[in-house]
Amino acid sequence: MSTISTIAKAVLVALATVSIASAQHKVTPASKPAVNGPSLEVTLKFIQDKIGQEGRLTYSAAVTDTAQQDVSWKNNFVVELSNPFFNVAACSITYHWHAEVNGKLADDNNYTLNFRELSKIVKLPLEENQH
Q: Quick one: pLDDT at residue 11?
């Protein structure tokens, strides 16, 4: 998996986490229907709409190669997640990811994140997300 794909998924998960946290909806077990809260479909639609509103994100990253003394550089990123769509039946989200690094196209594809394949979600600082 490419670094851009990893970043795309990390951004997606972070946006979904922020959206879920801001919604502050109670989650009920799947075996019991929600009595006082929104349905899963309503909650996912809320998250989908929030993610879709984010737009482009522009940031810079300073990188230092610790294996080589005094070797460092700066990368400029422009990323955008668009067209998010939750498929409740498939337990997945599809989205379009566009990324540029230093003004050059790095990724411009559609992706699917299947939540059934996830065993856990861990929030890590970017420094710790180096595979």
A: 53
Report pTM.
0.59
Q: What residues does each domain of the chain span? A: 3-128
Strands 104-114 and 92-101, sheet pairing: antiparallel
* One-letter-per-residue 3-state SS of the chain: CCHHHHHHHHHHHHHHHHHHHHHCCCCCCCCCCCCCCCCHHHHHHHHHHHHHCCCEEEEEEEEEECCCCCEEEEEEEEEEEEEEEEECCCCEEEEEEEEEECCEEEEEEEEEEEHHHCCCCCCCCHHHCCC
Q: Which whole number is the average pLDDT over 13-19?
A: 49
CA 107 to chain centre: 15
